[in-house]
Design a protein that fits this description.
The chain is mostly beta strands. It contains no helices and 9 strands. The protein has one domain. A 7-stranded antiparallel β-sheet has the order 1-9-8-7-4-3-2, with no helix packed on it. The chain has a two-stranded antiparallel sheet with strand order 5-6. The chain is globular and about 45 Å long. The protein starts with a strand and ends with a strand.
Length: 106
């Protein structure tokens, strides 16, 4: 799977899952949600800094969460031979309310 960090616009369906997304000027229609999970902040990356004669652990925001969806999506008619199709990882960051495309397998 290729890694990305591209902003996307997402429209959610009735179930609040992604229904469509706009990536690089192209509209993709979600055909199926393959997986859905939540990730918390990177607690394992807590750095130790020295200062004032002692070591102090840097605070890591463990409540920061992002929600991820792995979706099958296509452009065009599902039965058309010319349909563009792929599997995408979409991320929603609760801290800033942004959607990102973080991975693609096509």
């Amino acid at each position: 799977m290729r890694q990305y960090d591209d902003p996307v616009e997402v429209r959610r369906g009735e179930t609040e899952d992604p229904d469509q997304f706009l990536w690089r000027g192209r509209l993709w229609k979600v055909r199926a949600v393959v997986a859905h999970w939540v990730e918390t902040g990177p607690w394992w990356q807590a750095a130790v800094r020295s200062g004032g004669g002692g070591a102090e652990a840097a605070a890591v925001d463990l409540v920061a969460e992002r929600e991820l969806w792995r979706v099958e999506a296509g452009r065009g008619m599902p039965s058309a031979a010319q349909e563009s199709y792929g599997v995408f990882d979409l991320s929603f960051d609760w801290t800033d309310g942004r959607w990102q495309l973080v991975g693609c397998l096509d």
